[in-house]
Specification:
By secondary structure, the protein is of the alpha+beta class. The chain is 21% helix and 47% strand. It is built from 6 helices and 21 strands. The strands form 3 sheets. The chain has a 16-stranded antiparallel beta barrel. A two-stranded antiparallel ribbon has the order 5-6. Strand 7 and strand 8 form a beta hairpin. The longest helix is centred in the N-terminal third of the chain and has 44 residues. The N and C termini lie far apart (80 Å).
């Protein structure tokens, strides 16, 4: 009786098992093969009293193979449906996490206080800024990007950009497309070209940027960047052209060539280099600049950065800076902060443009209209600054940052007639308090 019960449940059990798990198929086939090879053993496992024959076992094998094939087809259909569902879920996630249009930016409230010895001008200025960045995804490789800036001077309630007897705005600072061709990154349009550490160039150009990166054993790429285009910034003022210095009213419309390299050389150390050339399109006068610098982490919280620069100008052609920073203020981490000290020696003919970095140079943009009335205005513009900045950045709440820094030192005066320093150095100081809000 036990034998009949066991045999009566064998075939249904084998068939049902194949419909559940494909992994049971080899075991079922092995069992049936054993029954075919040993009919006497198979007869002991039959539930009926009919004799076991080779034909009956072959029929059982055929039926079982059909059911195994049906189970396999069902499994393939389920796998295909799961694959299609996974692709649709990825598309939904991409649209959610990477929308076709992204808008982000920041606002800032700023108070600047300047003091120039023997130069009368606006000593301080309060302003509010809003910068919007828009990214439109063209496809998986290319995007269209723009930056829109709005500023208002709270000291006199005027717009940011005034000149030529009219008030105007610059709602579009940058407009460019960016993407990749193979392993090469490409940028085309109007964009900010910034040399390493913004040391020798920090200005918009209309042109093209090509960047290629090579992997290194430190996990960071060695980047090579070429920029070529045009800029209308005032530059080369005070340069000798024959016997006369370059006239600042005529120094615009320049071709720009820039080659940059950024190389990881150790786990926490990078070396950056830059070669740049500015050439006036009409007069063909030019300036070449070279710079090299490094940044390294001395430990987890202490970072050291330094660079030197030189140009082919006759004078005011060497500059350097060194900065030591403790910790890092990150807007996404409330309570984070940093403290830094920076030593400068900046000269007006070192960079590709005539503006000192870090907003030290007092006579461009915001102050030019009033300072230009002073007879010594251009004496200050192309001189040198030798001084120190002490700064603190702090994140009181998420997505904000408070910046405080004080800069002080000597500003060497410039003689436009000789393209050299006069030998007189005035005291200069600059204090800034700024609160930034990111969104």
């Amino acid at each position: 009786m036990k034998k009949k019960m066991m045999v009566g449940g064998l075939l249904p059990a084998l068939v049902l098992s194949t419909c559940g798990l494909a992994g049971a198929q080899p075991a079922a086939m092995d069992t049936l093969t054993a029954m075919e090879q040993n009919p006497e053993a198979g007869s002991q496992m039959r539930a009926s009293t009919e004799p076991v024959t080779q034909e009956s076992l072959q029929e059982m094998r055929r039926q079982l193979e059909e059911q195994l094939q049906q189970a396999q087809e069902l499994q393939n259909r389920l796998n295909a449906q799961l694959g299609s569902l996974e692709k649709r879920m990825k598309k939904v996630e991409k649209k959610t996490n990477e929308p076709n249009i992204e808008i982000h930016g920041y606002g800032r409230l700023r108070w600047d206080g300047h003091h120039y010895e023997d130069l009368q001008g606006p000593s301080n200025k309060k302003s509010v800024w809003l910068n919007l960045f828009v990214k439109h995804r063209i496809n998986d490789r290319w995007t269209l990007n723009s930056e829109h800036e709005f500023e208002n001077n709270l000291s006199d309630n005027k717009g940011a950009y005034e000149g030529d007897g009219k008030t105007y705005s610059r709602p579009v600072l940058q407009l460019y497309t960016e993407g990749s061709i193979g392993d090469v990154n490409v940028k085309l349009g109007r964009y900010y070209l910034q040399s390493p550490y913004k040391f020798t160039f920090d200005e918009k150009i209309d042109g093209v940027q090509v960047r290629y990166g090579l992997p290194t054993k430190w996990g960071r790429k060695a980047n090579f960047t070429l920029n070529w285009g045009n800029t209308s910034t005032n530059t080369l003022y005070g340069e000798k052209r024959d016997s006369a210095p370059w006239d600042h009213f005529f120094s615009a419309d320049f071709k720009v060539l820039s080659l940059m390299g950024e190389f990881p050389v150790a786990k926490n150390t990078n070396i950056s280099t830059h070669y740049g050339k500015m050439t006036h399109r009409k007069e063909h006068w030019s300036r070449k600049t070279w710079s090299i610098g490094f940044d390294t982490k001395l430990n987890r919280d202490l970072k050291l950065t330094a660079a030197i620069a030189k140009s082919d100008s006759e004078g005011l052609n060497k500059s350097h800076f060194i900065q030591l920073q403790y910790k890092e203020a990150r807007p996404d981490i409330p309570g984070s902060y940093d403290i830094y000290v920076k030593k400068y020696l900046q000269r007006g003919h070192t960079g590709m443009t005539n503006w000192f970095n870090d907003d030290i140079e007092p006579t461009h943009g915001k102050y030019r209209g009033e300072l230009e009335k002073n007879a010594t205005f251009w004496d200050h513009r192309q001189g040198e600054f030798n001084g120190i900045r002490v700064g603190v950045d702090f994140v009181p709440v998420r997505n904000t940052k408070l910046l405080l820094h004080y800069t002080f030192g000597k500003m060497g005066l410039f003689d436009p007639g000789t393209s050299k320093l006069t030998g007189k150095r005035d005291d200069y100081s600059f204090f800034r308090a700024q609160w930034e809000m990111y969104f």
